[in-house]
């Protein structure tokens, strides 16, 4: 199933048409969206993470485990959400988050976190996502 491509948190339009993505590119976008969405939003209270609320605070240096835990919780919940879609056959195997393999943090600046998330998709491919959270 295709999804709208988001570029810099906006819809990408090429030659007057909305750009669509699928497979691993869609999974990449969904993982990022899941981690960057603040958990507890009014649309879906359990979806998202608390990473963005943890940044810029003095205690961030001692909370690597908390940041990793909130990312893992968000992705574990996303896996459960996708299970309903799998039963309805709306995902390609490449679009399914099957398992979180590892999460590590790069923090060159105390105001930002660069999670390195390694996953396995439903097609049994290992994929690495490195992105920033400010």
Summarize the entry for a quick read.
This protein is α+β, with helices and mostly antiparallel strands.
Explain the overall architecture.
With 134 residues, the protein is an alpha+beta fold. The chain has three helices and nine strands; from the N terminus they run ββββββαααβββ. The strands form four sheets. A three-stranded antiparallel β-sheet has the order 7-8-9, covered by helices on one side. The chain is globular and about 40 Å long. The two termini are 30 Å apart.
Q: Which range best describes the helical content: under 10%, 10-25%, 25-40%, 40-55%, 55-70% or over 70%? A: 25-40%
Work out the number of β strands: 9
H/E series: EEEEEEHHHEEE
How would you characterize the largest beta sheet?
3 strands, antiparallel
**Which strand order do you get reading across the main beta sheet?**
7-8-9
Please report the number of helical segments. 3
- Stretches where pLDDT is under 50 for at least 5 consecutive residues are none
Helix/strand structural class: alpha+beta
Cα Rg = 15 Å
């Amino acid at each position: 199933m295709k999804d709208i491509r988001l570029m810099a948190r906006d819809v990408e339009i090429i030659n007057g048409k909305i750009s669509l993505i699928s497979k691993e590119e869609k999974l990449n976008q969904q993982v990022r969206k899941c981690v960057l969405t603040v958990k507890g939003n009014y649309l879906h209270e359990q979806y998202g993470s608390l990473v963005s609320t943890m940044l810029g605070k003095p205690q961030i240096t001692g909370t690597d485990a908390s940041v990793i835990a909130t990312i893992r919780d968000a992705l574990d919940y996303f896996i459960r959400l996708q299970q309903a879609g799998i039963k309805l056959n709306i995902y390609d195997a490449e679009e399914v988050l099957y398992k979180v393999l590892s999460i590590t943090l790069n923090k060159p600046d105390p105001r930002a976190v660069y999670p390195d998330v390694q996953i396995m998709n439903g097609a049994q491919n290992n994929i690495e996502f490195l992105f920033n959270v400010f």
